[in-house]
Design brief:
By secondary structure, the chain is α/β, with parallel strands linked by helices. It has 28 helices and 9 strands. Strand 7 and strand 8 form a beta hairpin.
């Protein structure tokens, strides 16, 4: 019997935690709390977590597994990737040595900044520091060109802020956070023995307000067309004039061949920030560079720096009362630097080949379900439909782990100098990215490690990627009924495929090229549906914030529309994919076995809700509403099912039920 056949029989458990279902809350009124309410009520958030749930439980399991791998690697042969991971971890865990050094590692960096006497020297100093992990007034990364996806280009994105987003500098609801941020700036400078810390903090915060005023907001910054601005270097220089951008470029080690053409995401922001590089602001900029240099390394300095940084970015911004255990932070550092080196061992130990085979089957069913759905869309013309099906046929699924592993041979790590290691790691990554320019596109590269509990869609590569660590309960198990798998990991797969057809992903064709492959009428029909979904989410306020001041805490429907489209298409298509699975067994959702008293449809939707089990601190929920393109988990669960007819059938919803949405108001896109 094949895995597919086995999952269609009644011999496997339902995968639904029946004892967790809350009889006090009906699924017709609140599916999220019917499935997760008992857990929410009894679960105390771990003191080191701003939010906690299904994803975090799996992350902790992967984190413990990676810790064991790293600790074993401390005895590996010198020069090997394993030993580098072990030595990096050792350098982070040597608290006595770190404490003894205090602020000493900052001295040469601050001395370099002290020597700055002009705007030219300032930009050159920023460039030199940035290539080794220092702060930048913009962020840089290398990716394939949306206009010509067979070549790499350097991307330039607005930067320069210490708060999460430009809205934190202007909205009244963040006034108290701004005050605490200014106090934190002063505290960190004082710890670094920078004189007149208070005076400098005032200048830094004032300068960042000016920088923030030039920034695009989150909604504009996620627009694939608005942010695709292909500029020759000379045009970028002119945009930044009179700031001497070449001084920054050359000091960073970028050659003219690297910057002949750039993708500048927010041109007016680059121009606006560059306009602030004036002689009368030189003192403010050097203060800014001092602070952000210290801030970038604070987590790896002595405990006073660590506590100050956590005090603001942890307690103030997210409401988290306690710092994560040092070993957990050390594991995170190693994963950030040598993630594939330890990930390779993780896969060998924790990812059975059968899981990959089963996932390949699930992906094939999701692709087939999307094909059927697109083929039958009543609102789409044949011309656009043909292009959509062509794109779908070109999707590349990546399951579990990369087919080739990253080469860390040029990275030097020592066991007794954490700051040197961090700077070496940043320089290594900078050079690795830079080396892509002018080379053929590497379509085997992964942008997550196998031990990451997440997944992604990359529009430029038209690929969906599912790391090994997410392929386990509550998302997936080969040892449970198929309905639970399709409702959880199936919906996650469908979500990621759906990003290829969301409001931004749909602007890329099957080869990853940013191009308008829609007819004008079809695009208008698509946008009418997305506008309805935006309106639905704009009206939502997380239950825990639904009191005084609730008007400040609505979901931003425009910011979250891409992820909401992904959720809506993902769950709807996963339901159809489950039907594809059952067809092979001669079954339908109506004739599939009843398990634990639950129909196949009920198991499917309960599994969907189990996957979104999560709770968070008020401060964290507020922070995420401002910057996160994902909706809160309660709405990722509840608001989506309100738009799916199969949910109504599964639980016999009527107009009296809280999750009822009038049929004409329900949104179906894919």
């Amino acid at each position: 019997m094949t895995l597919r056949q086995a999952q269609g029989t009644a011999s496997l458990p339902s995968g639904i935690h029946l004892d967790e279902l809350d009889p006090a809350t009906r699924p017709q009124d609140d599916l999220f709390r019917h499935v997760n309410g008992k857990w929410i009520d009894r679960t105390e958030l771990p003191a080191d977590k701003a939010r906690y749930g299904a994803f975090h439980v799996l992350h902790e399991e992967a984190e413990a597994a990676i810790r064991a791998i790293i600790e074993e690697s401390q005895a590996a042969d010198p020069g090997t990737d394993a030993r580098k991971a072990g030595d990096l971890f050792r350098s982070f865990m040597d608290e006595a040595a770190i404490e003894a050094k205090g602020a000493e590692p900052l001295a040469p960096l601050l001395a370099e900044i002290d020597a700055v006497a002009s705007i030219d020297e300032l930009l050159a100093t920023i460039g030199r520091l940035e290539r080794a992990g220092g702060p930048g007034f913009v962020h840089l990364y290398v990716d394939n060109d949306p206009g010509d996806p067979e070549r790499y280009l350097l991307n330039v994105v607005q930067g320069g802020l210490g708060l999460p987003d430009e809205s934190y500098y202007r909205e009244e609801k963040f006034a108290e956070i701004r005050e605490q941020y200014r106090a934190f700036v002063e505290e960190l400078l004082a710890l670094a023995a920078v004189e007149r810390a208070g005076e400098r903090a005032d200048r830094i915060v004032a300068l960042e307000h000016e920088i923030a005023a030039a920034h695009w907001d989150k909604v504009a910054s996620r627009d694939a067309q608005k942010t695709y601005n292909l500029l020759a270097w000379e045009a970028a220089e002119e945009l930044a004039s009179p700031a001497p951008l070449t001084a920054w470029r050359d000091a960073m080690g970028l050659q003219p061949v690297h910057t002949a053409e750039l993708v500048v995401h927010q041109p007016s922001a680059l121009g606006g920030i560059a306009a602030l590089f004036t002689e009368d602001r030189l003192t403010a900029w050097t203060d800014w560079l001092r602070f952000h240099t210290v801030r970038s390394l604070a987590g790896s300095l002595s405990d006073a720096f660590v506590q100050a940084s956590f005090g603001f970015y942890g307690r103030t911004l997210t409401g988290t009362p306690e710092q994560r255990a040092r070993w957990k932070r050390g594991v995170s550092l190693v994963e950030g630097v040598l993630g594939e080196a330890v990930g390779r061992v993780y896969v060998e130990r924790h990812f059975p080949p059968a899981a990959k085979t089963a996932m390949d089957e699930l992906v094939a069913d999701l692709i087939e379900a999307y094909r059927r759905s697109i083929s039958g869309l009543e609102w789409m013309s044949e011309e656009t439909r043909a292009r959509a099906l062509e794109k779908l046929a070109k999707f590349t699924p990546k399951i579990g782990y990369p087919v080739k592993w990253r080469d860390y041979s040029t990275l030097t790590i020592v066991p007794d100098d954490l700051i040197a290691n961090e700077r070496a790691a940043a320089e290594f990554e900078f050079q690795r990215e830079l080396a892509k320019l002018g080379k053929p596109i590497d379509r085997d590269e992964w942008f997550m490690t196998p031990q990451t509990v997440n997944a992604y869609y990359n529009p430029g590569f038209n690929e969906i990627v599912f790391p090994a660590a997410i392929l386990q309960p509550p998302f997936f198990s080969a040892e449970r009924d198929a309905a639970a798998n399709y409702g959880a990991i199936g919906a996650v797969i469908g979500h990621e495929i759906g990003h290829g057809f969301d409001d931004q992903g749909s602007r890329f064709d099957g080869d990853g090229r940013l191009t308008d492959w829609w007819t004008e009428t079809d695009r208008a029909a698509f946008e009418a549906r997305t506008a309805s979904l935006i309106a639905q989410y704009d009206a939502l306020v997380p239950e825990q914030l639904d009191g005084e001041g609730a008007d400040d805490h609505h979901v931003n429907g425009e910011l979250t529309i891409g992820e909401n489209i992904g959720d809506l298409g993902g769950l709807g298509i996963a339901w159809q994919a489950y039907g594809v699975h059952l067809e092979r067994l001669g079954l339908t959702p109506e004739t599939a076995p009843v398990l634990d008293g639950l129909t196949a449809a009920q198991r499917f939707f309960f599994s969907w809700a189990q996957a979104w089990q999560q709770k968070g601190r008020d401060a964290e929920v507020i922070r995420l509403l401002a910057i996160d393109p994902h909706s809160p988990s309660e709405f990722r669960c509840n608001q989506i099912v309100r738009n799916i007819s199969a949910f109504y059938d599964a639980f016999d919803l009527s107009e009296e039920d809280a999750l009822w949405l009038a049929e004409q108001d329900r949104v179906t896109i894919w």
